Amino acid sequence: MTEFKISTIATPAKIDLLYRKIEEQGSVETTLILPSYLQKYRFGLLSDILKLVINLNSYNRISIVKINLEEDELDKFFDQEYSYPVLALLWNIASFVDKNDKNIKQVLRQKQNEFYSNMNSFSNIKGNKYLLVNTDHLPKEKGLIKLLENTNGFNDDEEKITNKISKVLSDYVLTFNKKNLQEIQPIIKDIGAIIYELVKNTYEWGRTDTNNVTVSPSIRGAYLRYHIGKNENVIDEFKNTPLEEFFRNPILLEKSANKSNQIYYLEILVFDSGIGFVDKFGKNNKDSDIDIIKKCLIKNQTSSTTNMKTKKGKGLDRILGILDGKGFLKITTDKYCLYRDLLKDEYKPIDKNNLDGLILNHWDNQNQGTTNSRKAQGSYISILYPFNN
């Protein structure tokens, strides 16, 4: 038995070190130790935590989840964005204990049900954030967000879903600064539509493998969060990553840093625990892995064979247009972590026959996707949208 402990002072860099530990050991049963809270949430941290847990469970089965708190402190734990999706992923395969090794699964069941009920009714969640999670291995009446899916499949009503997501942004996420809410109003429905299309992609791509066999356990979802940070602190947090260069860009500083050198920005994450873009699109395909991922960014590319096919395939291309000259896109799937800094590399529509014209950079610029890189399960699309000052 081995232990993986996520600290209260977790950062993307520290989570990455834990992730690399998976590669260093063989397949062994694992205890996952979760913090009762995070001292500070940074852009991309939920994506990194989910990637860690999903892949840790895939390679080394998680048999025990220890939450580092007393039972009476669980309300604080459920204020954290990672609590519900991590517990939902592992619910049927792990035991759950508190810091004293006391079994707390029954108490957690009540808390999970309450959180699920709040998501389904689109009730407020503490903080300027929102989370929607579908859990495929649970009974549909306990695992699916009814607005998005039901026993018949995906609710393909773009207007209804887009309007609801837009309302969530207005009512719960962008409440700190009315100016930011006013700024985003002209495109708030576009953002809602992006989330609609990406979540629909998780329904078609994230639930099954290349042979259309159900992936289990399986979680899929979307996360929205409003960030406020002093630019020098943000730069320090992402030192030696592409985000350091992004936050140092003079265009960003001129447009988005206020008199106190604070920057306000929106984080959007859409994730699934499936097999990833490359395996889903690459079966019997001669394209390179990177070309397959690029095709996912081009309008009207799709693997769908359902009656939704004619409506699909515009989401990621639409994102690039909205972020053009302003934002940042990060994609983690298979062996690859890729990004597009749209301050530096402006968006241009690309024809599917000219994939070399679509810029996607490797996150660490070193050995990405070589035979020494372990394939990661799941796909994680992260968007950073900065507001004007």
Secondary structure layout plus pairing:
Layout: E1 2-5, H1 12-24, E2 30-35, H2 45-59, E3 62-68, H3 74-77, H4 83-90, E4 95-97, H5 105-120, E5 129-135, H6 140-143, E6 149-150, E7 153-154, H7 158-173, H8 178-184, H9 188-205, E8 219-230, H10 231-237, H11 242-248, H12 250-256, E9 262-272, H13 277-282, H14 289-295, H15 315-323, E10 328-334, E11 336-341, E12 361-362, E13 376-386
Chain-averaged pLDDT: 88
The major β-sheet equals: 7 strands, antiparallel
Strand order of the largest sheet: 5-8-9-13-10-11-12
Question: How many H/I helices?
Answer: 15
Number of DSSP strand runs: 13
- Beta-strand residue percentage: 15-25%
Helix and strand composition category: alpha+beta
What sort of overall outline do the alpha carbons produce when their principal axes are compared?
globular
Quick tags:
alpha+beta; 4-stranded parallel β-sheet; 21% strand; single chain; 7-stranded antiparallel β-sheet; 37% helix; globular
